[in-house]
Inverse folding.
């Protein structure tokens, strides 16, 4: 049986006078007192059906009973629309199908929400995800994502990278987030872990002689969900032997150019801008700065060393933003409240009115030299943060983004790509009182940092780099450690004992000792890349079947309880917390 011989969105003026069969979903039905108009939708688009009771009484009888999202088959003649009925917004807007035969293939009850309805609760959308995915925006998102992956594969294979799958069930290792554990009936009391990334496997593949590896890999991280974070994620994973940092940059830039061209029809200029991590923190208060607007952070630490304003004089770092807006007292109180939420003790300010006169409770404590340094255009507010450098960067970076959105400073049509380089190798965790890896424990310190590992580990920098677009990190990578002695040394700094090193990473250390070449690479989160590409605020809307913020699938009900018999077979006992 042939259900259709043409897509609904493929009907054109060239088909006028021809007979065709279409099939799809009823997007809309309109009864005009005899004539019934049906917008028929399939993956190719929409075509208008016209059911005339004088032409086909039986088809009209069927059409009276259909509702939105019924699946129907229609056969008839393609005719030109009257000039005043042409719809210029549709590719099929010049034609319609005069229906001779209409067949209902599947019915639908009253829907929990309409496909063109705005503001539908996300839980309801996820509960009926198959309906949600029929919406034009979701169809666009998932199809665009697929085109992006296709472009990525084309570039990887053109550059000689081999697609190799790595295991989904592996060994639990400390890589940052919590592992999802998988029990096994054949080994009671033992667990596999779902991979947080294929990090170790891809290093082993390069050590094995596959000098250029790539994979579109599934990764799993048992962590709290946010607007830009998933527990199940997909990433482009790339690794190469004898790595060339410029080659990795050029390959990534070429790949992103292909993605933007294929998916959006946008030509992206390369090479991309580069900036060190220290510069990004100082100028934008972020390791993923949004460069679509200015509003850079400026430094006043040296200028205020001898200030009569004690908060400035005593602070390790004093920095400020010049905001092109004359804020009221109420505005400043609101901004100070936000700054305190981000960790600031307060928010000092200078407001320049329309005449250029300054008003501020701190102005009387500032010298002429200081005031000259802060002098700004009329109708401008200067906002200060004074504290430890990391705190100042965090507060002013968050404030900068907030004001960029609130004051509509962002160029929404721009694509601003940026390489952030020379990341810190380690960061100190106050709660656990130990060093942690900024990227992961396999990142290579640069040559200048090797001598700092014992004397000042926090100053060590890694051969690590992130790719950012419009304030969203879409890729990150590093050169890896290929010497077992250096890897063991880094493990030691991370408070991983020699016994734990052998237990968790012994096979990697053994592989590194058996002719491991220098190697490195990059990974790009497909979900977050799609989020940037589509300008979607929520990463879940780039995925076909995501979990909600609680890590639950409202559609299937997963995760669910399992039977005591299945738990017993796995040797697992569930402890229920008392309320």
């Amino acid at each position: 049986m042939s259900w259709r011989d043409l897509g609904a969105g493929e009907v054109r003026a060239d088909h006028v006078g021809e007979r065709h069969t279409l099939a799809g979903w009823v997007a809309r039905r309109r009864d005009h007192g005899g004539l019934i108009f049906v917008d028929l939708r399939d993956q190719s688009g929409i075509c208008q059906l016209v059911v005339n009771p004088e032409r086909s009484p039986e088809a009209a009888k069927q059409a009276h009973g259909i509702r939105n999202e019924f699946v129907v088959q229609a056969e008839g003649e393609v005719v030109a629309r009257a000039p005043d009925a042409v719809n210029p917004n549709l590719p099929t807007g010049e034609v319609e199908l005069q229906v001779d035969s209409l067949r209902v293939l599947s019915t639908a009850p009253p829907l929990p929400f309409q496909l063109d309805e705005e503001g539908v609760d996300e839980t309801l959308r996820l509960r009926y995800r198959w309906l949600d995915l029929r919406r034009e925006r979701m169809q666009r998102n998932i199809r665009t994502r697929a085109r992006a992956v296709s472009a990525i594969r084309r570039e990887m294979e053109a550059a000689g990278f081999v697609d190799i799958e790595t295991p989904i069930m592996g060994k639990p290792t400390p890589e940052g987030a919590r592992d999802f554990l998988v029990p096994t009936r054949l080994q009671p009391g033992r667990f596999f872990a779902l991979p947080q990334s294929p990090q170790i496997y891809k290093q082993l593949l390069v050590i094995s002689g596959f000098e250029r590896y790539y994979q579109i890999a599934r990764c799993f991280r048992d962590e709290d969900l946010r607007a830009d974070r998933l527990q199940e994620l997909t990433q482009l994973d790339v690794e190469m032997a004898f790595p060339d940092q410029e080659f990795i940059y050029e390959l990534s830039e070429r790949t992103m150019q292909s993605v933007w061209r294929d998916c959006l029809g946008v030509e992206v200029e390369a090479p991309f801008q580069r900036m060190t991590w220290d510069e990004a923190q100082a100028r934008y208060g972020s390791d993923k700065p949004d460069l679509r607007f200015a509003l850079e952070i400026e430094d006043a630490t040296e200028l205020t060393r001898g200030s009569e304003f004690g908060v400035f004089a005593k602070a390790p770092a004093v920095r400020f933003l010049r905001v092109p807006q004359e804020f009221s007292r109420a505005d400043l109180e609101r901004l100070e409240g936000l700054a305190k939420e981000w960790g600031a003790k307060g928010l000092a300010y200078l407001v320049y009115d329309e005449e250029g006169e300054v008003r501020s409770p701190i102005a009387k404590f500032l010298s002429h030299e200081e005031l000259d340094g802060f002098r700004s255009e009329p109708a401008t507010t200067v906002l200060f943060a004074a504290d430890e450098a990391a705190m100042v960067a965090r507060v002013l970076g968050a404030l900068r983004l907030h004001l960029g959105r609130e004051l509509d400073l962002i160029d929404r049509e721009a694509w601003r790509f940026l390489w952030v380089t020379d990341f810190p190798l380690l960061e100190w965790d106050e709660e656990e009182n130990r060093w942690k890896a900024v990227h992961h424990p396999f990142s290579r310190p640069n040559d200048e940092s090797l001598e700092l590992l014992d004397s000042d580990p926090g100053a060590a920098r890694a051969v690590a780099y992130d790719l950012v677009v419009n304030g969203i990190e879409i890729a990150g990578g590093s050169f890896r450690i290929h010497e077992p002695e250096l890897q063991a040394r880094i493990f030691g700094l991370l408070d991983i004992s020699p016994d734990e090193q052998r237990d968790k990473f012994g096979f990697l250390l053994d592989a590194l000792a058996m002719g491991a070449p220098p190697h490195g690479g990059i990974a790009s989160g497909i979900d977050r890349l799609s989020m940037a590409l589509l300008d979607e605020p929520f990463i879940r809307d780039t995925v076909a079947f995501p979990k909600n913020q609680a890590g639950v699938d409202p559609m299937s009900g997963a995760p669910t309880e399992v039977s005591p018999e299945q738990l017993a077979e796995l040797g697992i006992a569930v402890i229920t917390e008392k309320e």
